[in-house]
Structure prediction request, 427 residues.
Amino acid sequence: MKFWLINLPLYVIFLLAGLGLPGIVLWQRGPLSWPEVGIYVAAAVLLVLATFMLALLMARLLFPHYWWLGQVEGKDVFEFDGVYFLGLRLTRVPTRLQRLLFGVDEQMRTWDLIFGVMFLVLLVPHTVGFFSAHRELDRLIPDPPKFPESLHYPLLSSLPVMKTWGITWQPDGTLGRRVDQELTKLQRDGLPGVQQRFELAQLHLLKAFHARSRFSDPYYDSPGEALYFNRGQGLQAVQNLQYLLALPDLQRAGWSGTALTLIGFFHLSDRNYAEAEKVLQRALAEPGEGSKAPITRYQVLLLAAQSALMNGQRNQAIDYLERILTDERLPNEAYALAMEHYAEALRLEGAYSKVPELLGKALELYKLGKDRAGIARVHIRLAALALSEGKRDQAAEELSIASSLAQGLGDGFTQDMVSRLTLAFSG
Prediction:
């Protein structure tokens, strides 16, 4: 009776823990990290233990008592003429004769083999149960939509080379031809210097984003996406930025933070959020380069917050964003962008009550600056909030407004945000 009172509850505990542990990973909804891999490994170990416990329970019911005494309790079992003896040691009988007279080796091996086969057979339904439970948990645990592309349009439009040209980023042939002309000119001028390396990096980043014109063009989540990221072009930008980082200290003074920031932006675009967060933390550790820096401090904090958020580090993202919002010297458009992302971090954290007020203030600032892309993004985030709260009618209304605004912009990143939210809504 003691065996059943101990081992039966142990089996139930191991089974439920093995099936339920992946829920911790699914609840975070971040990229798979080593701690989360450890959780899956722990779940697999628990299911193997549960299978072993069930095999023992079945063996206790089905197998001969002498097998249980010998193989589980570790006692000496001997057999003679069909009678089994426990703990008998004939010290004066030669070992070989003892094995002949009192051996149960063949019977033991047979039942051992049956036990092993039974364990493997029982492991199959436990494995199937694990994948079925994981699929059910994935369906039940909410997966709030995230927007990894929400900073791309503002950052690309604010690159120094774009400010020099006096234009904002657009996924059209006009910008592409301008970028190609500048690349040709720089290559014709010969060996680039520091400033030219930085300009090359910017041009390759601009060239890395392409409008999808054919169904066969690459995409991340759905073939309805407007843009795709050319990793090869992005890596050429990184090579030029790494050249700046390899310069002696005096020569790269004023360049390190900017170079690291754009490398972090490359990793963010490449969906390598863990690496992006690590590089952007290094950028934040660099001495500040002032308000005239090619990439301002608040942009570094925004990118770091976005990388942390996509990496599941919500508290870290909120900390970065709060550091931005305490700076009263920021222009309205910068403040609105930070407030928009702060509201997004709070939504993913589950603090829904604080989000509408923040998005309302951001919307006012965007309307004041006649920033249609910003207005569209706010409506996307309002739709995502309504969807997270289960208000599907309100979500559909906000999504319709955002879709209308995005279609008239020619901004592929905002269009992809609409597409991403549409997928979440239909799911």
